[in-house]
Backbone:
């Protein structure tokens, strides 16, 4: 009669087979609990690392997303991660709960928009599109806000660094990816662009001299009072 091996001596596949994955309904509850308690979006890989062996967070997310359809809180995909967020049509209910914010300066909006629509883009390309130099303070502040980050270096002389938008930027505006960015008309309707026709071909910004806005005294200023 052969001696039975303890679980620790069993092959890895056999040892893992001793533990069955929880029912899908229970996996949905686990995913829901993790997303509810986490402020930042969570990837399926991170979910799988927290859940019992054999769990399928991807399938659980599919069921959970259907369960939340039409409710006050929806399950959103943000890049390659997932998060529970207030339904977009109910955002107005949160206005009293938010802290009063100040608008981004025109220079910051234009710089951010160029990066979002043309990423990956270098500082020189941003300046070419805007028609004026880009304040280092503006870029630094956008980096500190974690709305943009450094991308890959461009394979051109000097290997200039590029800029791309982050998952924080997508999360803030409720976007799954940069492909979901609104067009110029939507931006103007939201008050993010001035209601005036752009001169010549499409370009974010007017190409006017921003000397007053990005003077030596105010180069580090990203915000302007309303």
Residues:
């Amino acid at each position: 009669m052969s001696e039975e091996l303890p679980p620790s001596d069993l092959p890895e596949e056999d040892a893992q087979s001793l533990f069955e994955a929880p029912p899908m309904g229970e996996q949905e509850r686990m995913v829901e609990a993790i997303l509810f308690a986490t402020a930042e979006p969570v990837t399926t890989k991170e979910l799988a690392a927290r859940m019992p062996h054999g769990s399928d967070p991807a399938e659980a997310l599919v069921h959970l997303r259907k369960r939340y359809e039409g409710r006050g809180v929806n399950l959103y995909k943000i890049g390659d991660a997932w998060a529970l967020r207030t339904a977009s049509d109910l955002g107005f209910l949160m206005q009293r709960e938010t802290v009063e914010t100040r608008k981004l300066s025109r220079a910051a909006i234009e710089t951010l928009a160029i990066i979002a629509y043309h990423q990956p883009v270098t500082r020189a390309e941003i300046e070419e599109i805007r028609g004026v130099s880009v304040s280092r303070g503006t870029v630094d502040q956008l980096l500190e806000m974690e709305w943009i980050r450094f991308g890959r270096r461009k394979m051109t002389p000097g290997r200039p660094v590029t800029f791309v938008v982050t998952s924080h930027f997508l999360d803030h505006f409720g976007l799954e990816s940069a492909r979901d960015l609104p067009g110029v008309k939507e931006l103007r309707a939201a008050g993010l662009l001035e209601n005036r026709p752009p001169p010549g071909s499409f370009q974010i910004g007017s190409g006017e001299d921003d000397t007053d806005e990005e003077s030596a005294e105010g180069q580090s200023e990203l915000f302007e009072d309303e």
About this structure: Residues 44 and 57 are 6 Å apart (CA to CA). The chain is about 35% helix and 10% strand.
